[in-house]
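Sequence design from tokenized structure. All designs in this work follow the same two-part layout: the structure record, then the generated sequence. An example of the structure record is given first.
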């Protein structure tokens, strides 16, 4: 989900004409690269793609299943598996071979370490015409599609694998036990757009709890004392 967040943020600013939008995109791409440095990420993606494929394949003989839509999803999962399998080397390797991005990675841990006087080469790149910058950013972003597309696909399937249920928390607190035979992989919570609360989730192996908090003018957010109606998705596949 962190990767999904970074990809969405990078895509939003990717084609912006301002220098600050290009800076935002580059910062997101560097953060993505840091996550891709995990040695087990590729293996974990393979496992999840395979798990979802097998779980969905088992639905094919159930009555009421839209087989055309199911086959379409299975084809997308299979294509993602094949693309990831055919990718040789470490994920994000083209980035590691780029001198400009490497210099930015080295400075990213330093507060405000990417100023023009710190990295004149980066400053020079930022002064190129917007079309030149955007073209380069699109090439970098597209080189990560081998990760972005499976991540988007798997999370999309997981999110759509549950129906919303109306719930009510008493005085801003809700707790639910979990079925060990049906592990929940993701919780989704919906509130009205004009709600004064936001949810804070704590989860363990056997149960999860949700506290609905209110912002305070001074000090930390406090749990509301009102009953809160909300929508809940317990996503599993």
């Amino acid at each position: 989900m962190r990767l999904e967040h970074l990809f969405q943020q990078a895509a939003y600013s990717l084609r912006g004409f301002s220098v600050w939008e290009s800076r935002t995109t580059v910062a997101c791409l560097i953060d993505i690269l840091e996550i891709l440095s995990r040695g087990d990420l590729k293996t974990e993606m393979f496992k999840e793609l395979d798990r979802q494929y097998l779980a969905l394949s088992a639905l094919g003989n159930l009555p009421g299943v839209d087989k055309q839509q199911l086959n379409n999803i299975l084809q997308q999962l299979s294509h993602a598996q094949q693309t990831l399998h055919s990718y040789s080397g470490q994920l994000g390797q083209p980035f590691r071979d780029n001198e400009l991005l490497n210099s930015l990675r080295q400075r990213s841990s330093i507060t405000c370490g990417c100023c023009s006087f710190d990295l004149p080469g980066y400053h020079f790149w930022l002064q190129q015409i917007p079309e030149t910058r955007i073209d380069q950013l699109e090439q970098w972003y597209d080189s990560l599609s081998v990760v972005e597309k499976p991540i988007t696909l798997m999370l999309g399937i997981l999110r759509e694998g549950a129906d919303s249920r109306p719930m009510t928390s008493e005085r801003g607190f809700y707790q639910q036990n979990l079925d060990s035979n049906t592990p929940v992989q993701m919780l989704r919570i919906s509130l009205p757009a004009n709600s004064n609360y936001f949810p804070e989730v704590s989860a363990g192996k056997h149960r999860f709890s949700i506290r609905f908090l209110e912002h305070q003018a001074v000090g930390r957010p406090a749990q509301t004392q009102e009953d809160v109606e909300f929508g809940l998705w317990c996503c599993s596949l």
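The chain has nine helices and seven strands. We note this feature because it recurs in several other targets discussed in the main text.
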